Amino acid sequence: MSQHTTPTKLLQRLMVCAACVLSVAQAQAQDTKIAIFDSQRVMRESVPAKAAEAKLKVEFQKRGEELENLAKKLKATAEKYEKDAPLLSEADRVVRQREITELDQTFKRKQRSYNEDVNQRQNEEIASLVERAQKVIKQIAEVEKIDLVLQDSVYHSARIDITDKVLKALSK
C-alpha cells in the first residue's frame, strides 16, 4: 500500500482546516469575503477532468481487452476441463489442472498489475487537475478580493458559490 495521502483524506483534512480557519476569520472580522466551490463537481464536470478520463480510457483500452480475453480463455479452459475430466487419465487431469492453475495465476498477476497502473495514472491525473484548479481558484480569489475559499459544505448560499467560475476558467 502507498503511504501517500489519498485525495479523499486530503479533502477531509482540508475541510477540517478550512472550518477552523473560518471560525477564526469570523471572530476576527465581520467583513471577510468568503467563497466556496464544489470539488466533486469540478472533478466530474470540468473539461480537463473529462479529457483525462477519455485519455485514460484510450491508454488502458488494449490492456483491458487483453485481460478480458485472458479471463474468457481461463473460463473456457476450466469449463472444458470439467466436461472432459471424467474421461481423462489421472496424468492428463494433473497436466490440465496445472495448466488451469498457471493460467489463473497469470490472469491474477496481470489483473493486479493493470489495476495498479490504472490507479497510479488516475492519481496522477487527479493531482494535475487539483493543481490546475487551485491556481484557477487563487486567481478568482485575487480578482474578486475573496479572503477565504472553502471547498464543499453541507450548506451554502448560491451567492458565495464560485464553482461555475472555476469550471469556466478550467475550460479555457
Automatic annotation (TrEMBL):
Q: Which protein family is it in?
A: Belongs to the skp family.
Write down the InterPro entries for this protein, in alphabetical order: Chaperone_Skp, Skp_dom_sf
Which spans of this chain does the record mark as coiled coil?
57-84, 119-146
**Record key words, sorted:** Coiled coil, Signal
Q: Specify the protein name.
A: Periplasmic chaperone for outer membrane proteins Skp
GO MF assignments: unfolded protein binding
The record's annotation in PANTHER family points to: CHAPERONE PROTEIN SKP (PTHR35089:SF1)
Query: Matching Pfam families, A to Z?
Result: OmpH (PF03938)
Which GO terms fall under biological process for this protein? Answer: protein stabilization
**Source taxon at top rank:** Bacteria
